[in-house]
Amino acid sequence: MTRIGIDIPESAKIVLLQEDKFKMYNNELKFVLKEYDRIVNKIRPNTKSLLVPHLEDLEYKLRPGMVTLTWTSMNIDGYLTHVHQGLAKLEQLIININDIMENRIENNLKSLSKTVLVNLPQDAQTFTLDEFVEMQSEWIREEAEKLKSKNYEVEGAVEDLIQTICSYQLDQHVEPISAEEIQKLSKYYNWSMYQALLHATKYSLNQMKERICGRRNMPKQILKPFFEVDVHLEGDTCTLKPTLEEVQSAINRAASHVLKSTKHVQNWNQKDMPEDQREPFYDWIAKDKEIVKVILLLTGSI
Asked: Most buried of 118, 249, 293, 302, CB within 10 angstroms?
């Protein structure tokens, strides 16, 4: 308009002189919004409800840009610096949270769920009943210690996760994290620990059932003998030593050892109770329908 000789208002001339600055602010603000979306999308569903106050804190920092600031305000640079600091602080918190969840909680739970609580060599070796029971007892004793250790590790990691979230400095205008949400997260991972132990127990019992009893549809030549049993001819009758009842009893004892491997893996949220009175995960696992079903199949297998 100035090029063709038309007068423009003084305010328009001021805007024209600040063209580069306004374009720079526009780009900066667009970048801030993209960063906000990128950082928020890093939040995992498990911790989303716990981080509501943290997001409100960040939105409180963003609010002046929506309410009070104009293009001619003098403190836009200060506002952008304040917002960038808030974004960087929240992103660091989310990175720390995700690191604890992935490396200290979820990886331990996966490892724990794949634990095999029985020692069943796949070669052609056979065992006497006493050897079999003793072998399982020793193996399970060692694996049970690992379960107990992993349980402590995951419980400690969940406590660190909650502490990391709660130690974040929130603006005084923001409501603090509710104790109910903290309890909910702790219960969720307590349940995840139970599921991992349940999977390990169920998988181990099924492995025992398949190795000792074989699958119905498996060709007989693939099945390898597992127990050493002698046949005695006494008069007109043939007898087995050990008897089938004794073989079954040995299997039952081994299955019992597997099931009891979680007896010293304590349920969480019982720190105020004496250690000998705390409820172990065993109490839950022993009542599970799938576990009861596999135990019944095993105890009647021979």
From this structure: 118
The residues near 268 (Cβ < 8 Å, ≥ 6 apart) are 155, 158, 186, 190, 193
Give the phi and the psi of residue 226 in degrees, each rounded to 5.
Answer: -120, -40
Residues 6+ away with beta carbon under 8 Å from 99: none
What is the rounded distance in angstroms from the CA atom of residue 88 to the CA atom of residue 83? 9
Place of tokens 């095999």: 116
Q: Which residue has the higher pLDDT, 200 or 124?
A: 200
Q: What is the pTM of this model?
A: 0.83
Percent of the chain exceeding pLDDT 90 equals 52
Long-range contacts of 36-40 (CB under 8 A, 24+ apart): 36/62, 36/87, 39/87, 39/90, 39/91, 39/94
Residue pair 53/175 in contact by the 8 Å Cβ criterion: yes
CA 179 to chain CA centroid, Å, is: 21
Averaged over 163-183, what is the pLDDT? 89
DSSP helix/strand/coil, 71: coil
